[in-house]
Specification:
Blueprint: H1 17-28, E1 35-39, H2 46-58, E2 70-73, H3 91-102, E3 111-115, H4 123-134, E4 140-146, H5 154-157, E5 161-164, H6 170-179, H7 184-194, H8 198-206, H9 208-226, H10 229-239, H11 247-269, H12 282-291, H13 294-311, H14 317-326
Parallel strand pairs: 1-4, 1-5, 2-3, 3-4
Length: 327
């Protein structure tokens, strides 16, 4: 028998029907595993799914941070700059987390631990977590969140039930936005720009700066790729400034922007204009279409994909962007 998420555990989640049904079945049959690892690209809805699961298990709608039986681990600010996050989750944090998870719950039957950015665990922190993953105390639920299994030690992954959350179809995102009261034209635009990530589509709606940026994204990218080498190098320092608190996050935002525009240029180049996202920016897209050959666009898109991999090794963000522009 299949239980549907709308009956109990989840509500308002865009996509991820299979994951919702699996988790709901586990909850309703009292078969939740001790450890779960939620994996998927950023902005696909991992945190939303996790939050609703925890609230259901603890029978509350309160903020997770306010619940005495929930322990949340995330990267801490650096000592020198409180607006900048440390590179990793430390072993000291996990040791403290282990102590909390060993205690009996205060207000419910479950003790819940939520490790955000589990792929940022230091090697020592990962090792310190293993025993708690293997032998949790009493009724405990440990939840880890990461963008990729490959970024985690096999010893961690093997001790968790992996729940994969994939990108969602644009049609499903659009129809969900329309149901929430968004006009069809805007819903279609935001769902296309989200590239399968519901959280990003919602950000476009809620955050005015996201919407404002849509009007200048294509134009700025077009000018950048057509500018001189000297101008390109100068632009990189303007795109990611020294004051930027999370350079890696900013880097991925830039790569997303460049990739989405170049994708449209490639589609335009091969005559698939109907699949383009930036339909209101035809002039800028046409300029880049005339500038690049198909092989140029292919090489640029490949370089962007390589850049995402290199970024995991904490290479200088300016060098990463400069390399793409020189391509």
């Amino acid at each position: 028998m299949i239980y549907y998420a709308s009956m109990s555990v989840f509500s308002g989640i865009i996509g991820h029907k299979t994951a919702q049904e699996i988790i709901t079945r586990l909850v309703q049959n009292d078969q939740l595993p001790h450890s779960m690892l939620f994996v998927g690209p950023k902005n696909t809805g991992k945190t939303t799914v996790i939050t609703q699961l925890i609230r259901n298990v603890l029978n509350t709608q309160n903020r997770l941070e306010s619940l005495p039986d929930v322990s949340i681990v995330k990267r801490l600010p650096t000592v020198s700059d409180k607006d900048k996050l440390k590179q990793n989750i430390s072993v000291e944090q996990i040791r403290e987390f282990n102590k909390k998870m060993a205690m009996s719950p205060l207000a419910s039957s479950y003790k819940v631990g939520f490790i955000k950015e589990a792929d940022k665990l230091s090697v020592s922190a990962s090792n310190a977590l293993l025993k708690t993953l293997e032998e949790p105390n009493g009724k405990a639920l440990l939840i880890l969140r990461a963008t990729s299994i490959s970024d985690l030690p096999a010893t961690i992954v093997s001790r968790c039930q992996v729940i994969n959350l994939y990108t969602v179809s644009s049609d499903l995102i659009s129809s969900s936005l329309i149901k929430s009261g968004i006009g069809k034209k805007q819903a279609d635009l935001f769902s296309d720009l989200a590239f399968g990530r519901p959280g990003l589509a919602i950000s476009y709606i809620k955050d005015g700066s996201f919407r404002a940026n849509l009007d200048i994204v294509v134009s700025s990218v077009s000018h950048l790729f057509q500018s001189s080498v000297a101008r390109k190098f100068k632009s990189v320092t303007e795109i990611i400034t020294k004051q930027e608190t999370d350079k890696n996050k900013k880097l991925h935002e830039v790569l997303d922007r460049w990739e989405s525009v170049l994708r449209d240029v490639l589609l335009n180049k091969i005559g698939c204009n109907d699949l383009c996202v930036y339909k209101n920016n035809k002039d800028d897209i046409n300029k880049l279409t005339n500038k690049f050959k198909i092989i140029d666009l292919y090489n640029l898109l490949q370089e962007i994909r390589r850049a995402r991999i290199v970024a995991k090794s904490n290479v200088n963000t300016h060098l990463i962007l400069e390399n793409i522009l020189l391509t």
